[in-house]
Records
---
Amino acid sequence: MKVFGLQAPVYRAARVASRLAAKTSHIAAGRRAALQRAAGARRAGLTAGQAAAAVGTSRSSLHRWGQRLEPKSRRPHHVRQKTWTSELVRAVERLRQDFPMWGRAKIGPLVRAEGFTASDSTVGRMIRSLVDRGVVQPVPTLRQRPHARRWTAKRRFAQRLPKDIKPTKPGGLVQLDTLFINLTPTKAIKHFTAYCPIAKWTVAKAYNRATSQAAAAFLDKLIAEMPFRIEAIQVDGGSEFMAAFEEACKARGIRLYVLPPKCPQMNGAVERCNGAWRYEFYETYDLPSSVEGLNPILDSFQHLYNHHRPHGALAGQTPAAYLAKRQAAQTHPSHMS
């Protein structure tokens, strides 16, 4: 029987095998090229030392490369073994699956609250192991949207934020901002965020449009759900924080400060909180495409953020636990004095 050819899978396997056999590291390729140049210099009449100097290395390196092109592995002979238990792995896996955007600084205090003994570094290594095994997904990257330039009107009640003002107590200066969110390719909403940089407490609500009437309605929710009195609010130059919103702040006796143009870093606390909302809420869960169906779920995550999510700036405490501890530490004057 005469055979004119082999089946296509045989040829494909042969090509793959040849590529694997020919594959070398870039370090070995560089060393092979240096050996070839040194050999050419020796054939031209140079000594071994002169050839090594022409190549740009030492004679001992050329001799060592001639015996072994690939560099030796630097992996230690005795590698530290994993010390965590299967129960701890399951706890970290469960928390990471429930909160895919949380890292070791958030999950570490939670597993310790469940009775496990594990540092944040250990939890971080466990998360890395789970990601490498494909058990949990890595944190997705944020899709940035270029900011459009907005028209601004004249302020009536708001004042420019003074340079020397710094809040010292919860509610002293609450930061407000809006976040543009695409729920579907054809449905976009405006997410209003309020954040207290002292207590790390947040209040949020979604609206179809970012108008001053929506901002004024959000102010009512902010006053009702912040567990402390709001003395002042700072906002950027967005038109949603003018007109009806300014009148609402004036009617409630809340000072309103506006940031200078092109200074988003002065609103950094609420901007960071916006990142948590985007990463940990909108990028994580399958959400309804209407604000009526979205806001009840948003309220649930708001409660989770304020009462269960550990905060690094509060030494792993939740905002609710921080406020309770702060209130307990305050000394009240005696009624006998």
---
Amino acid sequence: MAIKDIDLEKKALAKEYKELLKISYQTLSSDDKKLIRKAFNFAVDAHEHQRRISGEAYIFHPIAVAKIVAYEIGLDAISIAAALIHDVVEDNSNYSIKNIKKVFGKNIAKIVDGLTKISNLDKETGTSQQAENYRKMLLTLNEDVRVIIIKIADRLHNMQTLSSMPLEKQIKKASETLYIYAPLAHRIGLYNIKTELEDLGLKYTDPETYNDISKKLIENKKDQDDYIKKFNKAVSKSLNKEKLKYLIKGRSKSIYSIRNKMIKQDVSFEEIYDKFAVRIIYKSNAENEKFLAWKIYSIVTDHFTPNPIRLRDWISAPKSTGYEALHIT
């Protein structure tokens, strides 16, 4: 590489590191920052001469995984450090779990060991083998859930950068993601990551359907935004009268979920009536949260006619992951 390119890469690396610290700056102690700095330096040395298929320096991958772990999932300094060095043993024969344990201690070494073992599982092929891998990963949940969470973050970044891989590997990784990693993310309660994994999985396993739905969602965005504004204006006035502390958010349903509805209901995109969702997130103490949920439901249904068949009550009976909400259409 030219000296100019090396300098630019070093600047980009320094920027990524600063962003990583900035993400969880308020929750990190001075010892946490020292640990993350040590892990960062360790990873930089271990991956010094390695590059991804895209040509990018490999070190940017573990930093990206650590940022997902810190920002999107909100894990602790031990998890961030483990994410930074998660590929060291697998990718550099000069390093071992024994080295990791000596430098970082038993906890981080155990997480990295678990991640290394899962990476070896990923190299095996075949549907029956994938099912067995899924079972083994579920068993890992009983040992340390951070191993699975960091692995899901690793897979998310790999899927976000999958375009540089050969077509055959794209399809293999995407299929694995839909079969193993998206369900795992759902099971743990990482719903936003699960949704992104599903959409990215569909993008590479069925690009025609993915692009078609994506295009139609963009075309329908104005109608969606207009409806959300109308909803917000109508409901906010009533919620304010009750002096509730709340936030209203609108979002499109995921491409993957829309595609699944089209298949299950045997309908076209135009016939799907819930292509986007509006969320009302409210603040409450534990004693009043159920009462307020039904109160907000009552306010919403004063303005908009619900379909009673479509009511989903996860307030009275929360999901196994702890998810609580009322869903109405």
---
Amino acid sequence: MYRFACSLVLAVACLFAAPHAAAQDLPEPYVRLIADAATYDDGANFDAVVMMVARNAEGGDEAVMAAVRQVAPQRSAQASAALGQAGTMTLADNAVRPEPATMAMQPVEADAAAAASPAAPEIDPGWTGRVSAGLSVASGNSEQQTYNLGAELNREFANGWTFDSRINYAYAESAGAVTQDQLALEARGDRSVSERWGYFIGGQYDRDVLSSFDWTAFVSAGATFQAIERETLDWSLRAGPGVRYLMPATGSEETQFVVDLGSDLEWQITPDSVFISETTLLVAESSRAEQSFRFNTSVADNWAVEFEWRYRYEFEPLPGFEESDSRVTASLVREF
């Protein structure tokens, strides 16, 4: 192939170096180019070389055919057919030759055609989400019933925003007494401004009858950073200022300035199983940390089983209340 490339360069140079060659005698570089092309099995390559030389060299078809009969007589019929199909004209006919086509022109034409064709419309995936439910009943030496319900609703909008929301409710009784009564609602919108950076706005509401606060809520906004984005692993961080509202079990409503720090990690372990970690730290006069680990595995089309461990820590609980509480749930999930 190197010899072929060198011969092609010499042939092009011959257009300028030997414009007064004899009408029926091809310059030596052209002859070597034809001889070299004849050694390849690719017939289309030989045809292209023959037609190129006939278009550009003095002597035209007759000189090319004379050279072919001299250096590659076994290709004479092929060369004659190629020149006949091309319909090339010699300089002696005083005809205007067509502009030789080059490989470099083809991508330009393809790009122009692609630019002229209308872009395919983007498909709006619409709303997606899931619902979950879990139940645990114990009887005998101990009597306990535990219920948990959940739902998620998400969407990617055409303007670049993504919306994620979640609601969870857990209720438990033991020996006729309520041991758990928690409701949590979360919503957040995110938008990317570059490959890694973006911004968010969101909030959360929690009601826990048995905690030191009847209910708490906060809203915040800030920046997001995509630390890892791979096919099976996604990890994003967020930070921003906000406001937290608290209703103590005893006392009046409080409002505090907070800094919302968060981490969201999703690891696709297998095509049917995923691990999710969500971390939130509210830095304020009454700070709070919350951690959730979820493992979800598919059992059928759009059906899955999920196990979750959720832990919450209040840095400044009211007297008589514990700083932390946790729960473990198992749920059947239906995705849509």
---
Amino acid sequence: MRRVFQLLLSILLIFQIQCVIASDDLYSFYYSGESEFINRFNASLKSYAKAKDIDLEMFDAKNNSSAQLSQIYSSVSSKDPLIINLVDTEQASEIIYHAKSYRNRIVFFNRKPSDDVFKKYDRVWYVGTNSAAAGKYQAELISDYIELTKNVDRNRNGVLDIIILQGEKDHGDTTGRSSEILKQLSDKKVKYKVLSQNFDDWDTQTAFNDVKTLASKVGLKNIDMIIANNDAMAVGAVDFLNTQGYNLGTDSKDKTKYIPVFGVDGIPEAIEYIRQEKMTGTVFADFSALAKASVDIALDDSLDDEVLTRKIWYKITDRKVLIPFVKYSSFKSYFKKYR
């Protein structure tokens, strides 16, 4: 009897050790490794995982939803937690269906599936940013810029002629950022006219071509401002303007050849352009905070919002956490406000 007890105890200890080992493994899945936003997040994720001695394995779907499903299906049987940046948010339910039998904890990152997904499985969370807040903060940057410079109406027609460079069609961030920026401008009594509002799919070159096409139609003198849903597209806009002798930054001899450009994300190229005064401003979330929240939720054993909120220091509501934004510009320092 004693030997049986010892054997059962040994089996239990082995099982516990295996569980601990499993909890120290983490899989992350990205829609595209070519995204600068994803690269920044991944760098923060790797750094935080290393500090916590977590084995991290990463997968790049290269914007192929079928490839991503295959990558995820090959990993769910490990029972380890998954951090997923979806190629197609419509496939979230299918992923949940396969993960439920293995009880994987899943953290969807940056691309939020529908609320129905959260009702189907109690071990799924979302970590991201507030799309509307990005538009709100962009509008605050623009309002501050208008107040400080007084000369944004370049063609003196009494309205702010703007280009909006949008992300993917039907993407939550595209819809949230674009609609909120226009709402905020209206609330701030800014008279504006949208010259174009095309979908440039978060891509630098696509945005470059978009601004080039519009400039050939209306002329650069009739463009007062460019507002992009992300920094990659803002960088594309600045790159085109540079080819026309505009937005050359601190070395420019003609300061009138400047069209303010605003973005979202705080990618290195955009920050550098802002420092060089080629680009006007951006808003961004703390990548390290995004990574920390994703990892801490994925590896924890709690299912309670309040318990997890106390652990990660960010408010979780209905298993969703939104990391706040910070403003950064070439014309005003905002950092003291957020320290």
